[in-house]
Design a protein that fits this description.
Rossmann fold, seven-stranded mixed β-sheet, disordered N terminus
Amino acid sequence: MLFRKPKAASLRTCLIHKVPARQYAENKNAFYTTHAEFVASASSLERIPHLQGLPEVVVTGRANCGKSSLFNAVLGRRSLLNTSQKAGRTRTLNFYHVGTEPPKLVLVDAPGYGARGRPEWGKLFDGYLETRKELKRVFILFNAKHPLNTFDTMMLTHLSEILVSQRERFTLQAVITKVDDISLDEVGGAVKRIREGIREVTHLCLPPIVTSAKMQPPFGIEEVRKNIGQACGLKL
């Protein structure tokens, strides 16, 4: 029984003692869960849709970092976005309306980066960041099981450079995912390593939000929702 996975209640108690208190208030937010729908996919800059100037946030991360699971948890859905164990499933920019009609914001799912990323995905993502005036925040995801690697530091550096070149037109924030996949004894150290790794690369990244999309109820998701709303200038 040495390798038995800890119960969710025990993990939640552990997390509550290791992350800021505001991150574990999990009240289901009707704004996000009442209405969310897929709008369009874009495989090139020319195919990026015009969405009435609604504020947008985009999510990126190393391949298989849990983007789809986080999206589904934020939107209170099980399968609005397909989840996969296979890295590199997301290959286009995917746009989703959020909020009761008329929609109030747009969530954008970007292809993952890293060893299984592709140059054309990076070109598409960079073009979006540099030209999309509606963009308000980039969320970059880090899997709690792994410290930052070369691809992560390169992406953080790259995003910071774009942020400066764009005169900080949008903001950058980290999200730590999959904390339920590591043992109770490792949670504090894992979160600390990622936080310190981010600080060593850039001072432009907002403090990371610690999350688990699999826990019931999900952990840290309400904090993600709150930060999305704040970035988009919405009072929810």
